[in-house]
Amino acid sequence: MQNKKMNRSLIYTGIALVTIAAAACGGSQPVAPNPANMPIPVNLYQVQAQKALYFDKFPGVVTATMQVELRPVAEGYVTGIFFTEGQKVAKGQRLYAIDDSKYQATYNQAQANARVAQANLEQAQKDADRYNYLNQHDAIAKQTLDHALTTLQNAKSQLAAANQDLAKAGTDLNYSIIKAPFDGTIGISQVKLGANVTKGVTVFNTLSTDGPVMVDFAINEKQIPRFAELQHAKPADSIFHLLLPDNTPYKYTGEIAVIDRAINPQTGTLIIRLKFPNPDGALRAGMSCNVNVRSADTSAQLVAPMKAVVEQMGEYFVYTALDTLIPNLPTQKDAPPAVKGLHAMQKKVVLGQTIGDKVIVKSGLQPGEEIIVEGVQKLHDGSLITTKAPGAADKK
């Protein structure tokens, strides 16, 4: 009985060892392609060199030609608001009023002081004229005339000082009324009636011009020569276009207004400012947009459909159609030495600018090569393909 158990144990052990060995051998054996697989139907596209009109894109921000924060030069409580928020205002139009009672009192006092100084000057002038006449006839002491002339000069200085105080008081009184410095659109008020405002600190509102408007965007310092040349291009060339936040094109083209004086040392970029007309008010200060700059390169370039491109680990590939022999693995039983037919061959490409549903291929392809544009998702390098299967399109 004991011998039977031992023999059975040895048999099980042998079976286990055979199974492990078979699994090990099977794991190291590569899987050969199955020649019985049907060719994958695809569509082909023949790449050719052609002139490609495209635009370089830059993120931009709309800025007003003129924009100012309205701050008070006087202090006090807001007693009047004379505009509708978000509406256009004219230069010199009253916008806000600050309580002017103390400024009015100061002005009235300065005005009274100026009148007193004027009266004193007139009296001093009369005394000086009288004493000068008496002095010509030796009817008065010389010292008396000197005192009269000194008094006259002091009266003139006092009047000048009084007039300066009056002008200052008048300016302070005028500052109690906030007026629009130029034509533009007023924003939402940051203060309400009764608010106590501080001189030079409180922001009442922001006023900006409506048009034309500016669009700022940054370029790499290597692109400076190109934009310096574009600055002198004719506006009719329509080089600069805008794409609004909803991806609709802006119907007016722009031109370079300013190239900034210095490069940002931290980013290595330079600000370009474009000027665009804004008759409809579609562009507003602070709006984000995309600046499309038409490329100056008019040479013929290879263009391929974007759907033919496959991205792998940050690199780009396409499949070309090649009529060739693909060898099978020698370990495959009953397989012919090679599979004859049209095969998909993977090629690495370097891409350029995207133009609609196509993309410029800078390198990796030659004119006349046929690339696969349909059925790409089913392919791998060396896949057997066909353009004759039902539903497959003719070659383009």
Give an overview of the whole structure.
The protein has 396 residues and is an alpha+beta fold. Helices cover 26% and strands 34% of the residues. It has four domains: 40-52 and 301-386, conserved putative lor/sdh protein from methanococcus maripaludis s2 fold; 56-65 and 209-294, Beta Barrel (Elongation Factor Tu (Ef-tu), domain 3), CATH 2.40.30; 72-99 and 177-203, RNA polymerase II/Efflux pump adaptor protein, barrel-sandwich hybrid domain (OB fold (Dihydrolipoamide Acetyltransferase, E2P)), CATH 2.40.50; 101-174, Helix hairpin bin (Helix Hairpins, Orthogonal Bundle), CATH 1.10.287. A hairpin with a 2-residue loop joins strand 21 (338-355) and strand 22. The longest helix is centred in the N-terminal third of the chain and has 36 residues, at 101-136. 19% of the residues are buried. Mean pLDDT is 84; it is low at 1-36 and 391-396.
Describe, in short, the structure shown.
The chain is 26% helix and 34% strand. The chain is an alpha+beta fold and 396 residues long.
List keywords for this structure.
single chain; 396 residues; alpha+beta; conserved putative lor/sdh protein from methanococcus maripaludis s2 fold; OB fold (Dihydrolipoamide Acetyltransferase, E2P); six-stranded antiparallel beta sheet; 24 strands; 26% helix; 34% strand; disordered C terminus
